[in-house]
Give the backbone structure.
Amino acid sequence: MSYKITDKVTWVGKIDWELESFHGEEYSTHKGTSYNSYLIKDEKTVLIDTVWEPFSKEFITNLKKEVDLTTIDYIVLNHAEIDHSGAMLELMREIPNTPIYCTKNGVKSLKGHYHQDWNFIEVKTGDTLDIGKNKLVFVEARMLHWPDSMFVYLTGENILFSNDAFGQHYASEMMFNDEVDQTELYNEAIKYYANILTPFSKFVVKKIEEVVSFNLPVDMICPSHGIIWRENPLQIVNYYMDWAKDYQENQITIIYDTMWKGTRRMAEAIAEGIKSVDQAVEIKLHHSGKHDKNDIITDVFKSKMVVFGSPTINKGIASSLPLIFEMMKGLEFKNKKGAAFGTYGWSGESVKVINQELEKAGLTVVNEGIKALWNPDEEALEKCREFGKTLADC
Ligand code: FEO
């Protein structure tokens, strides 16, 4: 299968409708994904990126329907991660001497993964490659999201091939942003940013400012996952600039685990308290043991405050919460407040442990938190409502 993107550019990737998780089990893909590879036919023929290894044979078979492989003049690998370079062994068996354009770090990564001494051509920002009527302009995009990441811009067609940046794990037979459900697209794009790109936000801002300074016209942004930004393509660039600057909405997320529903009842009472003094704030509740971890993280990303609750279990907290804390520490969220609550029977350490974890994750803990002994009665729940009111005022 292939899709014509412009007269010169054809999509030759793989749509993976079945994928349920990405990066091993680190990232849930409720909507599948795609591995976007692009074929440019000018006076020279260029292949940009490939697909994940399990689809390599299928990729080569389909690519042969589009082009005689021996006529591919250049391969551009914007990023060495396996979901984009996975068909290289299969491809290079067919065309072993074809030059591969990538960054210096790309060479290191590719050699590290495939242990092959292919015909690498290192490029850096500003280098160009004439391919006939048009040319390719290379732009290193270090840490977006790996050290080797790179963009390549096609003059004439005014297309930015951005690899992972601006992508979404979103399988669709509709190739362009103006053809798909806008809410689905936005939700997958922000989830992707929140769960993958957040720690690299300062690189995002610098890179976007640098690319904008080149004054290149952009008619299309072709990422390596999901749909292509054709209608108002810079909208996703503007979103990235917002998301990269300690993004938050008027949202408070309450994340809890619960054994006998006592901590859950506390969570709901705290939500009532917040809502009673701030009708405008959006409140989301997540059971950390039941809800998808990446959806939870996306809500953390959107939140100005995150409130965690757990019963005390074995002097600690429920086992589902450390997973969320670990993800938050790695993602390095900034400018967020936190608070803690939980039920207990005797020793009652959970609130203290949560506060420690919140601090380690870089959140500002706004108070000591609130505990309820055994199953909270109406008086205890009323204290939770009052606690919620104080959070709304923080
Ligand atoms: Fe889509 Fe970093 O690989």
Observations:
- The chain has a mean pLDDT of 98.
- Residues 237 and 256 are 34 Å apart (CA to CA).
- Residues 79, 81, 83-84, 145-146, 164, 224-225 surround MU-OXO-diiron (CB under 6 Å).
